[in-house]
Design a protein that fits this description.
The structure holds two protein chains of two kinds. By secondary structure, chain A is α/β, with parallel strands linked by helices. Chain A contains seven helices and ten strands. Chain A has a single domain, classed as Rossmann fold, CATH 3.40.50.300. In chain A, 35% of the residues lie in helices and 28% in strands. In chain A, helix 3 packs across helix 4. Chain B is an alpha+beta fold. Among the domains of chain B are: 222 residues, no CATH class; 147 residues, no CATH class; 178 residues, no CATH class. Chain B contains 25 helices and 24 strands. The two termini of chain B are 33 Å apart. The chains are: A alpha/beta, B alpha+beta. The structure holds adenosine-5'-diphosphate and magnesium ion.
Chain lengths: 222, 805
């Protein structure tokens, strides 16, 4: 599903290039559940962003479902993303001006899903995450855990093939974190490919493959 | 999707109330200003265009040359006989003459209602065939064909006849001549260069003249520029060909002595209002210069508001970066994001448009009453204008929206969603700086211009004219026996007036000094009979004293020397030089072709005998009772009020049949600058608006930059920086920007204002002071605006700021 070849990422600081990722080569098949681990600053988020096409690699090749992502234009990439991916952030990123309901609805709008079907999909999701009562609240009226839940719900609402999660439980207490990990496990069993960045051993225990990053180098892949 | 966008747009507007208000309201105010200016410009450009035949109507203007071959001095009127002569040479053209009684405001009466009417014109019956002035009642073809018929406006009719039907009523001119009302005029549009309340048939003018005391011989004068004269050319006759034949026409019809010194020319009707500043204009015309100035001011105000709009949208866009990233994460692509932002700013600009229309509705009546008269909302009924307006608003929306739209949507979401977003802010703030500089440049240009116009006007209102103007009232003598019999009745009236302790001087003159003068032909006598036309005022013995003028050489007129009347002259210093004399007293001078010899008896200091638009020229003061049309009374404080009452009582005693109408000389003098005064008011208004809008923008930006730097401010405070230090940090940048704006604005304004001042013979020097003042004012206002935000930011609790992260 995903093939990364010699992916590198650097930022220009003054006249030198500071490398954040170095020569990452990685293959991920459909149905995998992978944890990317490493200390803070290791490049986990960067790698995840590149895989999620939220960021471009500086060097290397990336193909997703056989499409050479590094050669696609913005629109193609956006539609590839829209069709197949969902993204969950460490800090609960919701659109502040939209209610929970509207936040959940937004990805469906971009997918041009018709009104009635959209409505039932949003309602199902609200049900599934037990946040029906919160549907008309704005993000700043929710607790951190609730916001994160909505973030997860939004990433999952369009049934993505690939779920990317950047420290999804980082801001939650352990009970909430466990709920989300259980959900991931269930999703994975139903066929969703999941890549999560985490530095919690508890979370990585849910996955079947662990990739360790250190200073931008791929250290181990087990 | 649209609903989703609109929701976000609206909630954003509400969440950032301050920004939204500044943005929308600033744009609305400037849109409203622009529409008002557009209305004004449209009005100026539309003068006299409402006549169906306007493209074929021309005015005959007459030029007079001092010598053959010299530059001609043009007048907006032509002598009486010109129209008829034109018809005999060009049978295919129609001519119309207008005529106002000479040097008097006729008294019109109907039963008990008696008023002096300064908009009473005699006119040829062709007037309705040439011009499209309409009749509400009556038949335009015949209304003025019969002698002693008159048409009047509806307002005038109600003034005299109340609710009665005016048709068939008889009004009396100067208590002697009866005119029958044959029609009611439609209201004369504001955008006409001529306005009248009465049009009387131009027939049997000999009788009219002898009734009002104007020599009937003048009706045959080829010299007196008496009538605004218009011609309607048929489609197949070009103005150029007629113009080319006019020199031949002059040679054929004008008496020998005027040929070569007189020229006629056609002036297009549509050019009169904006381009004509001739002698003897019917009304004060506009000036195309102000059309340019106001158009520019309107565009500049719009520009300032656009800059605000862009600046604030860009600044605010920073806070939208996260949303952009998230929308990408939700599956939106760049095109959709761009659309969203464009839609959003279009919503803003449309809101502004709606508010602008409301503002217009509210302001227009007030403005119409006080500042810019004759503005009509008709322009809002013009489809092209409305479409243009909506289109402009739309474009502004797009322009303002496009920067954030294209730049923000271009960011990779990964970058945007990182914890701290500083990306691209340097580039953005460079653009913002440039825009602020431009904005303040414009404000300063407008400010200096307004100040300059204001001080020039002030200067004109207060300039020493060289003669006394205070506590002097003037009355017209027309129609009274004071004028016919100055020797006895006039003297008796004078003596009656002087009985009051606070009436110090009384003098009869031909015209109002400081406003008008006559032009009279002279020669040097003694065999040299070369004709010399010189500006002249006919005065009596007390003229010099009444107006506080001193004789610098020779002597004033003296009652003890009968020869002074008609053959002695006092010249001003410039006239002495014009005539080429070193020592003027005793030099021979007489009315052109007079029988007896005459001489110069004295020299008077120069004074401004016309408006300050014109430089002082040569002037002759002549003593000649036959020419008196006015009497001026100088009073002295503190008894002015009772002196005026005394004058009124004396008038009632001497002229019981006519109501008294008098004016203060001061008022009459300043009335000459009424047009500039209204320009001044409007400039001050719009400059104020421009600066206000610029400051609104600055306020928003300052608030934004303070907000953006909350964390930096917090850290600095924790590290021990003082409030002043932080305020300085936040305001320093803006001060530099306003300073740069000054540097750009000054030369531009200097150039434009110098151009404007050229129009005035007496003008202020463009001093550095005005510039420094406007510059400092801009700086101060900017500083105050910015400091308000800066101080607020600096005094905020640093812990609050730092907790954010
Ligand atoms: N825009 C940027 N410019 C420069 N360096 C950056 C930028 N974004 C991230 N980095 C650096 O990249 C490194 C990796 O970051 P990240 O992928 O977020 O690490 P992790 O998620 O593993 O904690 C960090 O050292 C960070 O400082
Ligand atoms: Mg990270």
């Amino acid at each position: 599903m995903i093939e990364l070849r010699n992916i590198a990422k650097y930022y220009r600081t003054g006249s030198v290039n500071t490398y954040v990722l170095r020569r990452i080569t990685l293959d991920i098949r459909e149905g995998e559940f992978i944890s990317i681990m490493g200390p803070s600053g290791a490049g986990k988020s960067t790698l995840l962003n590149i895989v999620g096409m939220l960021d471009d690699a500086s060097e290397g090749e990336y193909s997703f479902l056989g499409e050479p992502v590094h050669q696609l234009n913005e629109k193609k990439r956006a539609s590839l993303y829209k069709e197949h991916m969902g993204f969950i952030f460490q800090s609960y990123h919701l659109i502040d001006e939209l209610t929970v309901y509207e936040n959940l609805e937004t990805p469906l709008l971009y997918k041009k899903i018709k009104g009635s079907q959209r409505k039932s999909m949003v309602c199902d999701t609200l049900d599934r995450f037990q946040i029906v009562g919160k549907k008309d609240l704005f993000p700043n009226q929710l607790s951190g855990g609730q916001q994160q839940l909505v973030g997860v719900a939004r990433a999952l609402i369009a049934n993505p093939k690939l779920l990317l999660a950047d420290e999804p439980t980082g801001n939650l207490h352990s009970a909430q974190g466990k709920e989300i990990m259980d959900l991931f496990k269930k999703l994975n069993e139903e066929g969703t490919t999941i890549i999560q960045a985490t530095h919690s051993e508890t979370n990585s225990a849910y996955s079947r493959r662990i990739i360790r990053l250190h200073d931008g180098w791929l250290e181990s892949d087990e | 999707m649209l609903k989703n966008y609109l929701k976000v747009a609206l909630r954003n507007l509400i969440r950032h109330k301050g920004y939204s208000f500044i943005n929308v309201f600033g744009l609305a105010v400037s849109l409203a200003s622009c529409v008002i200016i557009a209305m004004w410009v449209q009005k100026e450009l539309s003068f006299d265009r409402f006549h169906e035949h306007q493209q074929n109507i021309y005015r005959i203007i007459k030029g007079i040359r001092a010598q053959e071959g010299a530059e001609a001095d043009y007048f907006a009127r032509a002598p009486f006989p010109v129209a008829e002569a034109l018809r005999s040479q060009f049978p295919e053209i129609l001519t119309v003459r207008f005529f106002q009684l000479w040097n008097q405001t006729p008294l019109i009466s109907y039963e008990e209602n008696r008023f002096y009417e300064d908009r009473f014109f005699f006119v040829d019956s062709t007037v309705f065939a040439v011009f499209s002035f309409g009749l509400q009642e009556g038949d335009p073809a015949t209304a003025l064909t019969r002698p002693y018929s008159v048409v009047l406006t509806q307002a005038t009719a109600s003034k005299y006849f109340g609710n009665e039907d005016p048709i068939g009523k008889t009004i009396t001119l100067e208590e002697k001549l009866d005119y029958t009302v044959t029609g009611v005029l439609e209201e004369i549009p504001a955008n006409s260069h001529i306005h009248f309340d009465f049009l009387a048939a131009m027939a049997d003018m000999e009788t009219v003249f002898s009734t009002v005391g104007t020599p009937t011989a003048w009706l045959q004068s080829w010299y007196w520029t008496a009538c605004p004269t218009y011609v309607l050319l048929p489609d197949n006759v070009s103005a150029i060909s007629v113009n080319n034949q006019l020199p031949g026409f002059v040679d054929r019809f004008f008496p020998e002595r005027f040929r070569g010194k007189t020229c006629l020319s056609l002036q297009a009707l549509a050019d009169i209002h904006l381009y004509s500043h001739l002698g003897a204009e019917i009304e004060k015309n506009g000036d195309v210069f102000y059309v340019y100035v106001f158009s520019a001011a309107g565009l500049l105000i719009l520009f300032i508001a656009c800059v605000n709009f862009v600046n604030l949208s860009v600044a605010k866009a920073m806070s939208r970066a996260k949303e952009v990233g998230l929308r990408w994460v939700c599956g939106g692509h760049r095109g959709q994001l761009i659309n969203q932002f464009l839609l959003e700013s279009s919503v803003m600009s449309s809101t502004a448009m709606v508010i602008a229309v409301v503002l217009l509705e509210l302001c227009l009546p007030v403005l119409n009453r006080h500042l810019l008269t004759g503005l009509s909302p008709a322009i809002l009924g013009n489809w092209y204008f409305c479409l243009g307006f909506v289109f402009a608003v739309f474009v502004i929306g797009l322009m303002a929206g496009s920067y954030p739209a294209f730049v923000l949507s271009g960011f990779r979401p990964g970058t945007v969603l990182r914890r701290t977003t500083t990306c691209g802010s340097r580039q953005r703030s460079r653009l913002r700086r440039v825009l602020i500089v431009l904005q303040f440049t414009v404000s300063i240009v407008l400010g200096v211009s307004a100040l300059t116009i204001h001080s020039q006007l002030d200067f004109m209102q207060n300039k020493e004219l060289g003669f006394t103007t205070e506590h002097i009232i003037g009355m017209l003598l027309a129609g009274t026996d004071l004028r016919q019999d100055v020797g006895h009745r006039g003297d008796a009236f004078r003596n009656r007036l002087l009985q009051h302790a606070d009436v110090s001087h009384v003098t009869f003159t031909s015209v109002t000094p400081g406003v008008k003068r006559n032009v009279v032909p002279f020669d040097r006598g003694q065999g040299s009979n070369e004709r010399i036309d010189l500006p002249t005022i006919f005065v009596d013995y007390d003229f010099l004293e009444t107006f506080g003028l001193d004789v610098t050489e020779g002597r004033p007129f003296s009652k003890d020397r009968p020869a002074d009347s008609g053959s002695s002259f006092i010249l001003n210093e410039i006239a002495v030089r014009t005539l080429g004399w070193d020592e003027a007293v005793g030099k021979p001078l007489r009315f052109y072709g007079a029988d007896s010899a005459g001489q110069v008896i004295g020299v008077v200091e120069d004074f401004n005998y016309e408006s300050l638009h014109k430089p002082v020229g040569p002037l002759v003061l002549a003593l000649n009772a036959g020419w008196y049309d006015q009497v001026f009374v100088r009073m002295q404080p503190p008894g002015v009020r009772s002196a005026v009452q005394h004058v009124m009582a004396a008038w009632a005693e001497f002229v019981p049949s006519r109501p008294l109408e008098f004016t203060y000389l001061d008022d009459e003098l300043s009335a000459q600058y009424r047009f500039e005064e209204s320009v001044d008011d409007v400039m001050v208004l719009f400059t104020g608006l421009a600066i206000f809008i610029a400051c609104l923008g600055l306020l928003g930006l300052a608030a934004f930059s303070a907000e953006q730097r909350t964390k930096e401010i917090g850290i600095r405070k924790v590290l021990g920086s003082s409030v002043t230090g932080i305020v300085r940090l936040l305001t320093g940048e803006f001060v530099v920007l306003v300073a740069i704006a000054n540097v750009i604005a000054w030369p531009v304004t200097y150039y434009v204002m110098n151009l404007w001042l050229q129009d005035f013979a007496y003008r202020i020097e463009l001093g550095i002071g005005t510039f420094v003042l406007a510059g400092l004012a801009a700086m101060l206002i900017a500083l105050l605006t910015v400091s308000y935000q800066a101080i607020r930011a600096a005094r905020a609790n640093p812990v609050e700021a730092l907790k954010y992260e």
